[in-house]
Design a protein that fits this description.
alpha/beta, 6-stranded mixed beta sheet, 681 residues
């Protein structure tokens, strides 16, 4: 029942009460006649006078009362309208499409519009759109701005069926319309106060020298202390200039404390300390590079410190020479334009190999998996771990769901080989069913949980080992017992080859395994022309001693004529964007593995003079795959991360859903243009 109907019932009752009282008195009079009739006569006379008087008052005053009520209601409504019109808080009524129907004077003053303005609210506040209006009675709030003044827009839905009287001339269909009330609450002062408090919040950071040992080793003893002093001065001066505190913890590590307002200034300058540090030259052959990790917006100082720790680990895991800013929601990267220097020492590989051996010795079964749509590098690395597990007398399984074209020839070496069990390679369903509480999981050639062959295994296995050569992104495998991520490595097979050498002297790698691991290195380095270092060739030499044959490996990765034509067509139809970026499309028609062909075409496009980076688009399985390649001038990983992908500085890629190839190319061009304008490329 509406409020108006309740008022009508109360008013009707007010007029009916005298008549009901007269009826009650009549009944009493009849009863008195039976008791003592003279008193009944007296009551009858009184009752007649009462009815005559009541009827007279009703007939004589009802019209006057009605007129007075109408005048009061009219004046009351006008008073309400006047009060609402002069209300200090801006207020407006919108129809169901978001069009302004009415607003008070304060609203008109706030938005600088005349009282007859009847256009959509979106023309004033673009953030308030028709599809964003509330669908139920729940109020929504949207932050809006008008000429430097910040407002909190409060919008609530009003149903006409509750506002209009039931006896209105509008039919029921018309009365089912909707209105929206819009209040603007000026919260500029509150936002300024909150911003000032936020600006003063503490930010914790770390600065590491990436190549301290390598740079110092190239100097004379007299100059080593001078180099360290120059670096200390640059780092300390840089953070002191923004009112920060810099404290040296170790010879190559610094702790930073500053205000959040100062961090914004560093972000605007893209952490120019990264480039400034490279200018320190006092005879050192190698330029100094820094890694910076910043943590902020935590619930406590301790959490900011933990964020900073995670950020510096990400920066180092991605190759160094970059700054990583991490809060509770996002991770932002700056820099990362230079190639990481290959570490000449194998101490880390030996330590990781021994740690891996100890983990596998405590488990009875080992599951090994790479990334989805496995390639020769992920499968070769998995084979190396499989051989280690077999040598340690542990039951091992390689998890592989789809046998891609690039793997089919390699798989023929093992599928009908008597030296390998039939259940050596299993799918995700079988792996999940076979997991026990004493199982270990080794993830190779990937460190992103969602891209693994079977993400469910990460939740089921208590001991997880990660071996990868890709730079880490926002999404990482958490709670790993052992993590060995080295972006300097050319391939996961290179890393596993080193681990094989340090796990034990009794490990005997079979020729077919050596072929597969060697093939993984060949494919990922594009025949040792990309990202190949001293340790890459040492790993290849080790595999050759184990029986790998170059001719057999070459035959494993020969292409069919359809794939070769598709690659040639992609190269021939490439367009050059901004005189430095080659962009092309690889046809997936009749090609068994179009993504592999696209990657090969991207490699071939780098042979064109003047091309700094190449991008090949392939439509496969309802998605658009992008293969990105570069030589040394452009970090394609940064470009692909902007589009939701990742990878290496020179080898990266991404997958786009629900877009056409033309839309994907337009997005890539816009991303490259924006990064060039921002100085990121």
């Amino acid at each position: 029942m509406s409020r108006q109907e309740r008022r009508k019932k109360k008013l009707s009752a007010f007029f009916r009460i005298p008549m009901l009282l007269g009826v009650f008195l009549s009944a009493i009079t009849v009863l008195i006649y039976f008791i003592y009739w003279p008193i009944g006569v007296i009551l009858t006379v009184f009752l007649c006078i009462y009815f005559i008087f009541t009827l007279y008052m009703y007939l004589n005053n009802s019209e006057i009362l009605r007129k007075e009520m109408v005048e009061f209601a009219t004046s009351y409504g006008e008073m309400q309208g006047e009060l609402l019109r002069n209300f200090d808080i801006p207020y407006a009524l919108l129809d169901e499409t978001g069009k302004i129907m009415w607003f008070n004077d304060a609203f008109g003053t706030a938005v600088h519009r005349d009282s007859d303005y009847r256009r959509s609210i979106t023309t004033i506040f673009p953030s308030i759109r028709r599809e964003g209006l509330p669908k139920d009675e729940k109020e929504i709030r949207i932050q809006v701005e008008m000429e430097g003044t910040n407002y909190m827009a409060q919008i609530r839905k009003l149903n006409l069926i509750d506002l209009l009287p039931s006896n209105t001339m509008l039919d029921e269909k018309a009365r089912k319309g909707e209105l929206y009330s819009l209040f603007l609450i000026d919260d500029t002062a509150a936002r300024i106060a909150i911003q000032e408090v936020d600006d003063q919040s503490m930010v914790v950071g770390f600065v590491y020298i990436d190549n301290y040992e390598e740079a110092v080793d190239t100097l004379e003893d007299v100059r080593k202390s001078l180099l360290v002093a120059l670096i200390d001065r640059k780092v300390t001066k840089y953070f002191s200039s923004i009112d920060g505190i810099c404290s040296k913890m170790e010879k190559d590590k610094y702790l930073i404390v500053m205000r959040k307002k100062a961090l914004r200034q560093l972000e605007e300058d893209h952490f120019d300390l990264l480039e400034d540090a490279k200018t320190v030259k006092i005879g050192n052959e190698m330029a100094i590079t820094l890694s910076i990790g910043i943590g902020l917006d935590g619930l406590s100082y301790a959490q900011n410190y933990e964020f900073a720790r995670n950020a510096i680990d990400l920066a180092l895991g991605r190759g160094g020479d970059q700054a990583v800013v991490k809060n509770s929601e996002n991770v932002t990267y700056y820099g990362g334009k230079s190639r990481q220097v290959e570490k000449s020492t194998r101490v880390k590989a030996r330590v990781k190999a021994q740690a891996l051996k100890e983990i596998l010795n405590t488990r009875d079964t080992v599951f090994i998996m790479g990334h989805r749509l496995g390639d020769p590098d992920s499968f070769g690395a998995a084979l190396g771990i499989y051989r280690i597990a077999q040598t340690l007398n542990r039951k091992a399984y390689i998890v592989l769901n789809e046998r891609t074209v690039s793997l089919r020839q390699v798989l023929t070496l093992f599928e009908k080989n008597e030296n390998y069990s039939k259940d050596m390679i299993i799918d995700s369903v079988t792996a999940i069913e076979s997991v026990t509480d004493n199982s270990a999981l080794v993830v190779v050639d990937v460190n992103t949980p969602s891209r693994t062959e079977c993400p469910e295994l990460l939740k089921l296995c208590k001991s997880i080992v990660v071996l990868d050569h890709h730079r880490q992104g926002k999404e990482v495998i958490e709670n790993a017992t052992l993590s060995y991520v080295e972006p300097y490595a050319s391939s996961a097979c290179e890393m596993v080859s080193e681990i094989l050498q340090y796990t034990g002297e009794n490990i005997k790698v079979r020729p077919e395994e050596a072929d597969a691991i060697y093939g993984g290195i060949v494919v990922d380095t594009n025949n040792f022309t990309n990202r190949s270092g001293v340790r890459t060739f040492e790993a290849a030499a080790f595999l050759r001693r184990c029986g790998a044959d170059v001719t057999r490996v070459r035959k494993l990765f020969r292409e069919d004529v359809v794939a070769y034509r598709a690659k040639a067509d992609a190269v021939s139809h490439a367009q050059i964007f901004r005189d430095a970026y080659a962009i092309s499309i690889c046809s997936a028609e009749n090609v068994q593995s179009p993504t592999v062909v696209g990657a090969q075409a991207a490699n071939d496009l780098l042979d064109i003079k003047g091309v700094k980076a190449s991008f090949v688009f392939t439509r496969y399985q309802g998605k658009v795959f992008i293969s990105a390649r570069s030589i040394d001038e452009v970090n394609v990983q940064l470009i692909m991360e902007k589009m939701g992908g990742g990878g290496h500085m020179n080898i990266a890629g991404c997958q786009l859903d629900n877009v056409t190839i033309e839309e994907a190319i337009a997005t890539l061009k816009a991303t490259i243009s924006n990064m060039i304008e921002a100085g990121d490329l």
